[in-house]
Amino acid sequence: MDHSFLSEIIMLLAFSVVTVALFRRIHLPPVLAYLLVGIAIGPYGFGLIQSTDSTHFIAEFGVVFLLFTIGLEFSFAKMVAMRRTVFGLGLAQVLLSTLLFASIAWLMGQSLLSSAIIGGILALSSTAIVIKQLAEQLELHSRHGRTSIGILLFQDLAVIPLLVVIPVLAGQSDDTITMALGWALLKAIGIFLLLLAIGHWLLRPLFAEVARARSAELFTLTVLLISLAAAWATDAAGLSLALGGFLAGMMLGETEYRHQVETDIRPFQDVLLGFFFITIGMLVDLPVIAEIWHWIIALTLLFVLLKGLLITFLARFNGAEGGVALRCGVTLAQGGEFGFALIALALGTQIIEHQAGQVLLLVILCSMVLAPFLIRYNSYLAKHLYRVSYNRHRHQLIEEIQHDARHLSDHVVICGYGRVGQSLAHILEQQSLQFVALDLDPVRVQEAVRAGEQIHYGDATHHRILEATGIERAKLLVISIDDVSSVMKILTSCKKRYPNLPILTRAKDDSNLEELQRAGATEVVPETVETSLMLGAQMLTLLELPISRILKVIKEARSDRYKLLRAYFHGEEATSIEDVTEPTRSQLHTVQLPEQAFAVGCSIDELSLTELNVQINAIRRAGIKGKDPCGQMILKEGDVVVLWGPTKNLYRAEEMLLKG
Fold first, then answer.
1. Per-residue model confidence as pLDDT tens digits over 419-431
2. In this predicted model, what pLDDT tens digit does every residue of 581-636 receive, in sequence order?
3. For residues 327 and 333, what is the distance between their CA atoms, to the nearest angstrom?
4. 437-to-194, 290, 291, 401 alpha-carbon distances in Å
């Protein structure tokens, strides 16, 4: 039996694990790691693996699942809400970028058809890199963030006609191109209507039946069946597999199971998409690139500059301020992952010749390497080049907030106006207490202002925005933002400037409790732990315990910083990679001591578990459980030791107990 294909897959996985881990350490996108793996081990690199139909077939499903998840996110309501940006600015960007880069390709000697495809490929930007980087920088809801997302939405839509056109154009003569495109368009519309009908009449009842079975395995199998069947249907019609994936995602995106589908499909998407990018890297012909590397660098810089300037001009023409327009241009001035899929398709159908494809691959790759750094410093560039307009906008925001807060005193400042912030605001209103709130979601702010609520658009991490709320006259600051890094910025700034101001903040759980308290929070309310406490109080009330006793239990739990409730057994959820690597996340863990265990005969103090930040919560001996044992207690064979501490340290503590 030939196991060569299996050995190739194992080699791909081994190289991918090492390279992706390295790129994660230096904060570069994994997509670049996969491309590097493909370049290194491919036929033009060290030649460890030859590009085969089998690897390409597996990799192609990565694109299917990527288009599937984009289809899930596709929303007619979102398109209508952002129609000016999506269908105005987005359409103009794709058309003008295609025209610009197609003209350059034509002037460089490419055929008219090849130039048009190259222009369409270079018009696309990287959705994955842009959204990830903007989210990390808390800029998704900023003015340039919203505009960039609108343009990306249209770019994702523009991929669909390119996926239809490229296979059709392969091998067509000039006389038959129009007819072939018309026939492909009719087939695409027919399949689109058929799948929509199937989605409307069959998918909802099918998934309702699957959901009643309460089987995660059956649900995942059904999702895979639907997505792959739709891809097969479009492929059988002479269109691309990826188009079927998009249509299947769009069908399921209109159902109530969208979020569960996205969660189930993501592991398949990420792994197969990694294979896809590896196969793209294997297409890079290093000997050819070595001869024209200086052209690659020049063309990459020219591409990034022209695309950035074009998007800046269009955003400015659309009414954005100079600084916002420049930030949009810098954010989107790169090629995209869909470009690789389209290049592979165009090379396979020989619409683009080999050397032109190599140049195109490397230009997009180099621009994507630059993208995280350009996006990271987009604010720095814009504020230095458009200092006046940025300061003017910031001053307008500050003046509006100052004007509304000028008469407030002993009020509450609320940072974050999501569900928690709004609930607190309603409580304050009921008690006729004054407050002013800040939030970064423009839609939420606009709707709340229309309802007459005291809220302003503003970034609370900037101390001048906070000053405008009259925080020096405030009685309390409440931070209801769920992003820990933003909360830390606000705490650090406020504790330095207003050391006597009480600060109340929320946390999803107890993992950041001490960190937030050290940063200056007067009180931190961990949501999961406080919910347990409230449920416990109701439980004791229904058990008819005296109110004074219930209040004492609650008071003791809170005064002890929720220590009693924070110690719990995580069970299977501890297998989550976030739980294991999170340095502040703690849990309970039990260890039974056999006869040969190192800890048998040792006192608790002698074990020095505190060096690992691990405590012995209790000892169970002969069926009797003793909590908080003293340090002089000698451990015996058969003792069950209940440990409490950071997840990653518990297993080291267990090893110390057993082996020393």
1. 788 888 888 887 8
2. 455 556 777 888 887 888 888 888 888 887 788 888 788 887 777 777 888 888 88
3. 10
4. 49, 58, 60, 10
Residue type, 445: V
φ, ψ for residue 624, nearest 5 deg: -110, 130
Phi–psi pair at 49, nearest 5 degrees:
-135, 135
Position 301, amino acid = L
Strand segments (E) across 260-419: 412-415
Other CB atoms within 10 A of residue 423 CB = 10
- CATH class name, domain 571-659: alpha beta
Total-model pTM: 0.63
CATH of domain 393-488: 3.40.50.720
What pLDDT does 184 receive?
66
Task: List the strands of the sheet with 640-646, edge to edge.
Answer: 586-592, 640-646, 615-621, 624-627
Residues 6 or more apart whose Cβ sits within 8 Å of residue 562: 510, 513, 526, 529, 530, 533
Both tokens of 288, joined, read 């050819």
- E strand or H helix at 479: strand 476-479
Quote the radius of gyration of the chain (alpha carbons, Å). 30
**Closest CA relative to residue 218, chosen from 229, 227, 228, 207:** 207
- What gap in Å lies between CA 220 and CA 293, rounded to an integer? 46
CATH number (3.40.640.10, 2.60.120.280, 1.20.1530.20, 2.60.120.10) of 4-384 reads 1.20.1530.20
**What are the structural domain ranges in the chain?**
4-384, 393-488, 571-659
End-to-end CA distance of the chain: 48
